[in-house]
Design a protein that fits this description.
Blueprint (H helix, E strand, L loop, with lengths): L3 H7 L2 E6 L6 E5 L10 E6 L4 E8 L1
Antiparallel strand pairs: 1-2, 1-4, 3-4
Length: 58
Amino acid sequence: MVPSMARNELRPIIKLRSTAGTGYTYVTRKNRRNNPDRLTLRKYDPLVGRHVDFREER
């Protein structure tokens, strides 16, 4: 059995906030070992109606 703390430390839950300024967020997990810096993904923002960059907030 794998302890749950190790899993949470390696793959934490992060919020991705829209750079369009709408305040829309996505929630996902990331692997801290492969991506130690802040994550940026291009995803759909329904408030703007187009794809924009979403940056990880801490």
